[in-house]
């Protein structure tokens, strides 16, 4: 196969290319998953869909579900690697385009970055990556006019080879600047570097973490989570069908543990879906009411609890305006910018704008004020966000304490957070960073960036 154009007699994206016999020929092998990968990445580049949304959406605009399992895995892998290295890949493409990307070029940018990702970061043969990228361009109604350009750009990128690592290259500049201001240059570089590493699979188990770690070939973290190198279908792992565990990042498992003994106590779990924290609360013996404004998400939460053999009452409602009998404890996992999850969701930064943070902070303040009213006098409120931005964490709690004298921080203790005691700040709140939980194997290191505060309501 030549680098300049696909051979005749092949089909690209539903278009039939005929040879001398005039008979339609089969599609180029390997083209379908690469076309889908480009569509998945384009959803992020155009800020219309997250990668997860594209993979889960019912009407499947990218054609992901139409692929066979092997091709689905390949398309997802290509999209994932591309998004982890998107800043670098975009820079390489820009360096080969003197006049920038052409207008009305369809999937061209997505085709270029996914093609470069395969050649540079996935050890795909260079000629295969370039050939199939050109074929993908020819299959797109708008990008087909720039197939020759795609060939030239990718040839140039491949010839230059893998670029040197540059701190912060693979997260948006505005986000990296914020992390540098908040945490310092060294910590910001370490946070950004975590984006380039495929994260481990963390599980919360009902009991016996050490036993399950041995059974699954993983490690038991000091905080009680079980960690595995991610591979294959989660549902095929030992213990899934019997409901022995559920998937939950090690940092996401910490807020519910800050309540201590919950046996027989009433707990309201606000913004509860998808339900990992609800499962923790129920497994601890609490009488849980899970609240979320999405009926569909609550239905999935109930299905997950059913697999686990756990139960909780559910209520479809806006947590900011919820009227309910006060509970012994309230957990508020508030909607946020999710910038602490970039190691698991590298598209997060590219889908958000810096201006989004102020609006989310206003929503969080409303939710906090509502949550305080739902706690019995003397009860506990745990607030958490999977964000690295101070406006959504430290400043949010400082503002709450300033406007409501009934609320005080009940500091987290070192014995409650074994292995990450340094995550407790001077006020007693907890800030996990993506380089916490170090391990000699990078695939078993790190966690999501979380902020959490345990509050006593008078």
Quick structural overview:
This protein has helices at residues 31-45, 51-56, 69-84, 86-95, 108-121, 126-139, 147-160, 173-183, 185-193, 209-216, 254-257, 276-283, 295-308, 348-351, 356-373, 394-403; strands at 11-12, 15-16, 201-205, 219-220, 226-228, 245-247, 266-270, 287-292, 313-316, 327-333, 375-385, 407-409, 430-432, 450-457.
So, CATH architecture of the largest domain?
3-Layer(aba) Sandwich
**How many DSSP helices?**
16
CATH superfamily of the largest domain: Vaccinia Virus protein VP39
* Strand percentage: 5-15%
- Approximately how much helix is present in the residues? 25-40%
Q: What's the overall geometry?
A: globular
Sequence stretches where pLDDT stays below 50 over 5 or more residues: 1-25
Series of H and E elements? EEHHHHHHHHHEHEEEHEHEHEEHHEHEEE
The radius of gyration is: 24 Å
CATH class membership of the largest domain: Alpha Beta
> Which secondary-structure class do the elements indicate?
alpha/beta
Got a strand count?
Answer: 14
Average pLDDT reading: 93
Number of domains: 2
The fold-level CATH name of the largest domain is Rossmann fold
Q: What characterizes the major β-sheet?
A: 8 strands, mixed
For the record, give the distance between the C-alpha atoms at the N and C termini, rounded to a whole number.
74 Å
